[in-house]
Amino acid sequence: MVNLDGRVVLLTGASQGIGRATAALLGSAGADLIAHYRGEPGDRDGAEAALADVDFAHKHFVRGDYEDDAAVEQLWQDAVGWRNHIDVLVLNAAMMDPSGGIDDDEESWNAAWQRHLQVNVQAPARLMRAAVRHFRERGGGVIILLSSWVAQRGVTNPQMIAYAASKGAIKAVAQSIARGYAKDNIFTYIIAPGIVRTKMSVDFARLQGGEDSVTQTLAMGEWVPPEEVGELIAFLATGNVRHLTGATLDVNGATYVR
Questions:
Q1: Model confidence pLDDT, tens digit, residues 193-248
Q2: 3-state class of 232 per DSSP?
Q3: Residue-wise over 186-198: b if at least 16 C-beta within 10 A, else e?
Q4: Kindly report the CA angle at 212 between 198 and 194, in degrees rounded to 5?
Q5: In a domain, 257, yes or no
Q6: Is the entire prediction scored with pTM above 0.70?
Q7: Where are the beta strands (DSSP E) in 71-223?
Q8: Domain count of the chain?
């Protein structure tokens, strides 16, 4: 079993889906976990439920809306202030909206692209920037980015172009950090899930003809359990696989092999 005793981990988007499953796994592995939530009604409840079995001394909750740059900066400061340092940054929070497609009107196009780029690129890039500066002072650290297979293969639904572009952009940020700061013992890993059993994927499936239609396209005939992604995150959070830095790890049940 992965042992994260004494490692301080900041996990964004800990209220639901992959983040919620990961929060529970990181907590059970002994991490001192900082669980981020956006701040909408019920968001903190999800994060707290995921960590219900974790001792109060080993968990901390921070609020931050990715659509507000000042809130993102404050999120980082609040997180660092808990233990005065962070060892691992897990960037899971993101948004996906079926808008920003070729046939959308100008107003819809502009709004969709602006929001996707703010939430999925600018906000996590801002946190990565803060983390790199922090890690250089401490002699190293780990960044784990949740990307998507659409960053490599594109989307099947052209309404999702803005989402795919944002995931490709933030992946490039993470890879550039991996290459630029490996000598500083800053290790960066990109996880690219396929169809994971989350609300986001269920919503996407409705646009593709329903769950059964999507499942039929998968090599294993099943969706990825969010816990499997969480287990991979916990393993990477140990920092023990140094020479894997910069890698993109596909988690899609052999549906997309490259």
A1: 998 987 777 777 776 677 888 889 999 999 999 999 999 999 999 999 999 999 99
A2: helix
A3: bbbbbbbbbbbbb
A4: 45
A5: no
A6: yes
A7: 88-91, 141-146, 186-193
A8: 1
